[in-house]
Amino acid sequence: MRLANQWYLLYFAATSCSHPAKPTGAIVPKDSVDKSGYYIDSKKPVTSVSTGKTTPAELIAFARSLTGVPYKFGSADPAKGFDCSGFITYVFNHFGIIVPRQSADFTSMKREIDIKEAKPGDLILFTGTDSTKRIVGHMGIIVSAPGEETRFIHSTSGKADGVTETSLKPYYVGRYMKTIRIFPQNDNEGGTKKAR
Asked: What is the pTM of this model?
């Protein structure tokens, strides 16, 4: 039984960034926080996010300011490190934007776009390290413009170990699942929505 539990923990760590964490710098609806103050997943899938007056450029600048923060599974605390979705949560919550805490919960977002139309602030979703399991397990924030080499900022447990910018190289192409648009401004600047 102990060996089975160890394998489960290894699988869980390798395939998902999904540990709940305290939101930082955001106003969080009462029903999305448990009594210990930790973010809890809603029973309803999240299909959209309200970004208010925050711009993609502001979000990217803040995300880049965290470059070098180490990887730590289950953490959304820059003093300890970030897992991939902990990084996303921390960056968006800094601007008061509430997003799902688990990478897999971004699967239900309805604003899927073609990767060729990706703009800074869009999110790119990947499988976990086992690309045969077609479940979202990793994610990053696009920092490149259409026509440029696709680059994203994320927290990785790989060689870079922590918050870094990465090109969409073959390793990530094999794990790619979809790109989603968060900021409505990106639609107004020529991006087109892909119906789901």
From this structure: 0.75
Q: How many CB atoms lie within 10 A of CB 169?
A: 10
Per-residue pLDDT of the chain (196 residues; tens, 9 = 90+): 444 433 333 333 333 454 433 444 444 444 444 333 334 444 455 666 788 899 999 999 999 999 999 999 999 999 999 999 999 999 999 999 988 888 888 777 778 999 999 999 999 999 988 888 888 999 999 999 999 999 999 999 888 889 999 999 999 999 999 999 999 999 875 444 433 3
3-state class of 59 per DSSP?
helix
Asked if residues 90 and 174 have their Cβ atoms less than 8 Å apart, the reply is no
Question: What are the chain's domains?
Answer: 54-188 (3.90.1720.10)
Question: Measuring CA to CA, how many Å separate 79 from each of 5, 82, 89, 142, 169?
Answer: 29, 9, 15, 24, 30
Residue 20's Cβ-side half-sphere holds a number of Cα atoms within 13 Å equal to 10
Contact by Cβ (8 Å): 154, 164: yes
CA 130 to chain CA centroid, Å, is 18
Those residues whose C-beta lies under 8 Å from the C-beta of residue 85, and which sit 6 or more positions away, are 17, 18, 76, 100, 101, 102, 103, 139
Distance CA 74, CA 80 (A): 10
Alpha helices in 54-123 (DSSP H): 56-65, 84-94
